Amino acid sequence: MRLSQIxxxxxxxxxxxxFALPSTAALFSGQHSWYNLSTGGNDIxxxxxxxxxxxxxxxxxxxxxxxxxxxxxxCDYCHRTFKVEQGDTDSSDSRDYYPDINLxxxxxxxxxxxxxxxxxxxxxKEAHAASAVACMYCHSGHSNYSHGSGFTNxxxxxxxxxxxxDSYYYHGDRFYTGKSDDDPGECIKCHGxxxxxxxxxxxxxxxxxxxxxxxxxxxxxxxxxxxxANSRMxxxxxxxxxxxxxxxxxxxxxxxxxxxxxxxxxxxxxxxITNFQATGSNTTNSSYMNNWTGSY
Length: 296
Fold this sequence. Notes:
alpha+beta; 296 residues; single chain; two-stranded antiparallel sheet
């Protein structure tokens, strides 16, 4: 009887093990091979999940994907904001005078992201890995600062603090470019290789730092400012993406159809035209196909 109880107990343990042990094993092979977060930036591939976006970026030579004179943007250029305004260079550097951003946008979108760089880790505050950022974050400056013949034969060591004369960082220590005689590297991806190294401003809407940018004659100013007021996307991104990318656009146009006014002739034959009004109503639907997916 004693032996039978022991045998039953062993069978029970084995039965439990059959169901319990598999759940203690790793579900995926490779799930304990961690990506390196401690070097400059990190080696986590955004394309691992966002292959559709990577395919778009690699399919065309266009803005931010390798157009002539520039380089293909890294994902974090747009989705992990960094300091770009005047004054982020060495305070003794006379090159920090030109305005590169609408500072109210930097105040709004300069986030603390998670990071493993350096000796201490940053868990992230407003965002962990990435965030949606306003296009105007980079395109609201107005300077036309030039570097002679451009970055093809210039170096970037004039911008940013140095540590012991060896390492150079720009934009609030975001980008490491090496020693002063190194290739400018990632700088040209945003600033290009031409003489004018400023990021092109989206002027004409009274949104850049250029005091002459009034937007007083801009046909699309209302479109842009109403996009800012809409909460679906960041800032004016609805307008920026609607015009500058290949997404489809469906518009319901509601317009007046008749111009009303009063024409009065006096006794000397002079006319006075008053009370101009737009009346009547017509609604037209306009659809434009998404160039990338071929769908509406």
